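Hi R.,

Here's the chain you asked about this morning:
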Amino acid sequence: MPKMKTNRAAAKRFKVSGKGRVRRPKCGAQHNMIGKSRKRRRRLRDNDMVSPAMERRVKILLPYG
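And here is the predicted structure, written out as tokens:
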């Protein structure tokens, strides 16, 4: 049986944690940082978890994650 293909767009955006949950970066942390407060920039640094409803759909795109 041939290997399954990983969706490359999803692989660049999501990582699977050790427990199997899907991690994602928070949105709004790429540019225009001068207009954002220091507290907001600090919160945007941390990665977030994908919601359980979307997690199943993301894992389909990452078969070896």
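One quick note: Helices lie at 8-13, 38-45, 52-61.

Cheers,
M.
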